[in-house]
Design a protein that fits this description.
This protein is α/β, with parallel strands linked by helices. The strands form two sheets. It has a five-stranded mixed β-sheet with strand order 4-3-5-6-7. A two-stranded antiparallel sheet has the order 1-2. Helix 1 crosses helix 2. The longest helix has 17 residues. It is elongated and about 60 Å long.
């Protein structure tokens, strides 16, 4: 009996399966979707992936993703640069932006301290955060790490580093469910959490 599998299709399915949250059936659906694209649309999709991979880098100030030197938030003179909201991922910053309640700037850690997973302070952008305190410009740092063991440990670690600098360090109020991720919280919950933040 001959093998029904087509090698290039199987490779495509395997690539989609490597994506977070994509199981085998969804990967198959995506692969067949890509196969049904016109040659032009397939080339545009491939170019979009390649361009995103080669042109996007970290913002020189906040470590958010951008295709310029500074991200749109850091480049905006109307933003309050005296308040920095520290989050784990670019998706978390995007979730807070959707509330339209925050006018400060961000710092993206790109992870959290997790010794069990081999992630220490040097594996995330804590040094880049500390480098932003070269004057009296920053008055408050909002620790908006996820309400998980790793997120809380990261917030506590950073707050201890910042206390000697005389900076007010606050934490989001616990309207965010413990163990949850900011990117899945609705705008109202995030807005209320920002209003009810407390000092660490």
């Amino acid at each position: 009996m001959s093998n029904y599998n087509v090698a290039p299709l199987e490779v495509l399915v395997e690539q989609f399966e490597r994506m977070p949250g994509i199981g085998h059936k969804t990967a198959q659906r995506l692969a067949y979707y890509v196969l049904n694209l016109s040659k032009t649309d397939a080339e545009e999709l491939a170019k979009a992936v390649t361009d995103a991979h080669t042109k996007i880098h970290y913002c020189a100030e906040c470590c958010n993703l951008t295709d310029k030197e500074l991200c749109p938030v850091c480049a905006n003179p109307a933003r309050d640069k005296s308040v920095i909201c520290v989050v784990e991922t670019p998706r978390d910053a995007s979730a807070i932006e959707k509330t339209h309640e925050y006018n400060g700037v961000y710092h993206i850690l790109h992870g959290s301290i997790s010794p069990l997973n081999g992630i220490g302070p040097d594996n995330i952008t804590i040094k880049q955060l500390l480098a932003r305190f070269n004057g009296d410009d920053v008055k408050e740092v909002i620790m908006a790490t996820n309400p998980t063991v790793e997120g809380d440990a990261t917030a506590l670690y950073i707050s201890k580093l910042l206390k000697p600098l005389g900076v007010k360090v606050t934490r989001l109020a616990y309207g965010i469910p413990v163990g949850g991720d900011l990117e899945y919280a609705d705008e109202y919950t995030l807005a209320k959490a920002l209003e009810g933040r407390s000092e660490i």
